[in-house]
Design brief:
- By secondary structure, this protein is α+β, with helices and mostly antiparallel strands.
- The chain is 27% helix and 27% strand.
- The protein has 15 helices and 28 strands.
- It has a 17-stranded mixed sheet that branches. A 6-stranded mixed sheet has the order 19-18-20-27-21-28, sandwiched between helices. A 5-stranded mixed sheet has the order 24-23-25-22-26, sandwiched between helices.
Length: 674
């Protein structure tokens, strides 16, 4: 039976999502998060079963309550809900959703409305900061009608002013943490400023740019990205942030002249990719540097008082009101405010699905007549990759043995998390299985926190097989040997790119380990699975990849890829002339990909045993053995306990690799107020 709770759906800034009073949601963080997952419909990428819109901009939630701080009116907790995977992240903040908090709080009776405008002081629970929000309330009622316009939103609405009170020096303790308004790093003048977000600001012209380039053009400029990263690393050290190589701050920003004396053009990086528009916090930092004298972004001299400034970005502009106090070297920003708008879309009861709160239990009677319907094997990658091919070989033979049709369902996305979460929460009766592998059940869980537990949420059915990892190159890349590749990368770092199947996948881990061991740096192209990644390499858009032999072998035989080395402990019978990386002096890159069949936790032992017996019979079929070996893979029949042991040992191994090597997801979480 569905559960219902009150809800207000709002467009806030350039985001949209449900707003809740904390008392409307279940008690406890876990139950609260389950309710949010159900509200948004996070379980599938389109979010069809909730009010999400299939993107992070429409998968946001605001939770509001009376403030726990005496100087504030309300507490605002922001939650970013997953798209296609059941996750809730309350670490970042969102300035756009913030714009809906005050009107929501007034309408819910948390703050009394004044005639004309109402000031609401908001305590952002995520960051501990305070923001004054001014809302238009003619006649003591919130109005959403007005003439204010913001880029990215059709039409006009009533203006909502966000005044950030704790933005300056919040992270480092000083607005200019190096003690200077301009530093010179590697011959380039930069301004290091901590205003809402630690930034390293550079004049675009000092790097040979106009500053009005499109984000795609800047992202394609590998030399620029490498230069910015070098400058950023040193800036972080000087700002007292230490080694920021695995941190998203300080953010690099390129600035150039605006259209008027009161505007500045900005290209904001996050930090290794140019933002398609601009983060709100970053805009406050840029505007502060623009308003103050003596920085690389400084505009015309400004007297003390209020100034309305504009930050121009690739998608439009952000208008910011800056209050200056003092003049000359003593000038400082007292506060900064920016204009947003919001609109209430609907208000009423939201019905939450039961499945987000508890795992369905199997029917006791079903065990004795298993299987009594078609089975589904969920594959965590796109069709065409090695996992998909193996799963279909197994399914074709397994179906006749079980006397039921077996469907193969590809649920790619989130580096296997979407498929894993789906199976983990499926009815544990043996009719929904997962074709898991080392990425979903060891590497990705070792790399980052996920919404599923690879051990607790699954019953191992049995190992399927394994395949070694290769280092391959496109024939036209001009790198027929590993040593030539290393020399080229050391001469021109990041001049070559590797294709990854996603963070936490074997190709990602192997590439990271290779770079660490060889002391090189490559650019990366992240794809959603091995099939698109191998296609990226075959077509020459990326030059290097670390696929399984099963995935790469057909392309190697067709001379579409060159096998440079084996990322394992020994040479392969299928490619006896290809050396191991260890033989070539690159040690520690030993990545073997294994594959196994899993059922949801709670699946009856009799059902698991029945499935294991059938699976092992399939793996003993000479035709299956031949087809696996022709693609460079080995079959590995065994017991459920053998798969459980393999998973447990590999999970421990990769957790230690992550710890020792400092490997992190390519896309670090961003704290920008998008």
């Amino acid at each position: 039976m569905n559960r219902s709770i009150p809800c207000v759906l709002m467009r806030a800034g350039t985001s949209r999502g449900p707003f809740f009073l904390r008392e409307w949601l279940p008690d406890g963080d876990e139950a609260r998060d389950q309710a949010l997952i159900g509200a948004i419909g996070a379980s599938d990428p389109l979010q069809l079963d909730g009010v999400g819109g299939g993107s992070t901009l429409n998968s946001k939630v605001a939770i509001v309550s009376r403030s726990s701080r005496p100087e504030c009116d309300v507490d605002y907790l922001f939650a970013q809900v997953g798209v296609g995977h059941r996750s809730v992240d309350t670490r970042p903040n969102c300035g756009n959703m913030l714009s809906g908090v005050a009107p929501f709080a007034i309408e819910q009776g948390l703050v009394p409305a004044r005639n004309g405008t109402t000031l609401v002081r908001v305590h952002n629970v995520n960051t501990g900061s305070r923001i004054d929000v001014t809302v238009h309330t003619p006649g003591g009622r919130v109005t959403y009608e007005g003439d204010a316009r913001i880029d990215g939103v059709a039409g006009t609405a009533a203006p909502i002013l966000l005044n950030f009170l704790d933005a300056w020096g919040a992270v480092t303790g000083q607005v200019f943490p190096t003690g200077r308004r301009i530093d010179t790093i590697d011959g380039v003048e930069v301004t290091c400023i901590d205003a809402a977000m630690p930034l390293m600001i550079v004049r675009a012209s000092d790097l040979g740019l106009t500053g009005r380039e499109k984000p795609a053009a800047l992202d394609a400029n590998i030399g620029l990205l490498e230069r910015l990263e070098t400058l950023r690393l040193e800036a972080g050290r000087r700002m007292g942030l230490g080694d920021v190589s695995d941190s998203v701050v300080p953010k690099p920003v390129l600035v150039s002249a605006g259209d008027t004396d009161d505007s500045i053009t900005s290209r904001y990086f996050t930090p290794r990719k140019c933002h398609a528009s601009h983060a709100v916090t970053g805009a406050i930092g840029v505007a502060s540097a623009f308003a103050l004298p003596g920085t690389v972004a400084s505009g015309v001299a400004r007297a003390a008082g209020t100034h309305r400034l504009v930050v121009l970005h690739p998608a439009g502009q952000i208008d910011i009101e800056v209050e200056l106090k003092g003049t000359g070297d003593t000038a400082a920003v007292d506060h900064a405010a920016l204009l947003r708008t919001a609109r209430k879309i609907m208000q009423g009861e939201m019905y939450l699905p039961d499945y987000v709160f508890s795992r369905p239990q199997p029917q006791a009677a079903s065990t004795s007549r298993f299987p009594h319907k078609a089975l589904t094997i969920i594959v965590p990658t796109r069709a065409g990759g090695g996992n998909d091919t193996m799963a279909r070989i197994i399914a074709a033979k397994l179906g006749p043995l079980l006397g039921q049709e077996i469907l193969v369902d590809n649920r790619a996305g989130a580096n296997g998390a979407i498929a894993s979460e789906y199976v983990a929460r499926a009815t544990p009766d043996g009719h929904t299985l997962m074709f898991g592998y080392v990425g979903t059940h060891a590497m990705n869980p070792a790399l980052q926190k996920l919404a599923y537990d690879p051990a607790a949420d699954f019953e191992p059915v049995g190992l399927v097989g394994s395949s070694s990892t290769l280092m391959v190159a496109h024939p036209d890349a001009g790198i027929p040997q590993v040593q030539q590749l290393i020399e080229r990368l050391k001469t021109t770092p990041r001049s070559l790119s590797y294709a990854s199947a996603g963070d936490g996948t074997p190709p990602h881990f192997a590439a990271e380990l290779f770079q660490l061991s060889s002391g090189t740096s490559m650019a990366s192209t992240t794809c959603e699975g091995a099939a698109p990644a191998i296609a990226e390499t075959v077509q020459g858009r990326s030059q290097i990849m670390f696929p399984s032999l099963f995935t790469a072998y057909p392309f190697i035989r067709a001379a579409q890829l060159w096998a440079l080395a084996v990322a394992g402990s020994k040479r392969l019978a299928a490619l006896p002339d290809v050396p191991t990386l260890s033989e070539l002096g690159v040690t520690g890159v030993d990545v073997v990909q294994w594959y196994g069949l899993f059922a949801p936790a709670g699946t009856p032992a009799a059902v698991v045993s029945h499935l294991n017996q059938a699976l092992n019979e399939v793996l003993a079929d000479p035709d299956v053995v031949r087809r696996f070996e022709s693609q460079g893979a080995l079959v590995e029949p065994g017991s459920p306990d053998a798969l459980a042991l393999r998973m447990k040992s590999d999970l421990a191994r990769w957790r230690e690799v992550v710890r020792q090597a400092g490997i992190a997801p390519k896309e670090q979480r961003q704290f920008a107020l998008d």
